[in-house]
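Worked Example 4.2. Consider the chain below.
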Amino acid sequence: MLEELLHLDKDFFLYLNGLGADSWDNFWQFVSNKFSAIPIYVFLLILSYQKYGLKSTMLMLVSVGLLITVSDQLSNFFKYGVGRLRPCHDPNILEVMRLVKSYCGGKYGYFSAHASNSFSIAVFFGTILKSKIKYISIVLIVWAALVAYSRVYIGVHFPLDIVTGALIGALLGWVFVKLYIFALRKFSL
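Applying the procedure from the previous section yields the following structure tokens:
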């Protein structure tokens, strides 16, 4: 059963990765670059400050810092614990896939830290800001989905890597919203 799932995952990867075109490579590399999200993070910080004030925003910043740390380290734990090769390190498909950039990343890729981190941020801020800004949750989930898909497009993650990362990130985002709300009440901010 697991072997069949992994085989389907590779086939789906090759299909999605094969849809790429040279004219879109720069766009997807930009989306995949962790620094391209800085304007989004600054925008969310400004919105949080405007809607909730300095003390709550500072607590939010601490919460997000811990959230990203947990998300990222959990991903690393699974990558080395599971030991699933990234597509760009898999000798069975290396010759038939598109690798958009020359750097592939570490040897193992299950699960995607990019997907986990972007979905954790999307769920965290989407939940906290949804009562203040109507469609913020949808916009942030779409952004996170683009980041996740970019990892398949450029050839460094299988679809199962990004789906797992998205689900774990969303769960962590929700847990950290609950912790943030608890801390707000505990410290009367």
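The mean pLDDT is 92. The two ends are 50 Å apart (CA to CA). Compare this with Example 4.1 before moving on.
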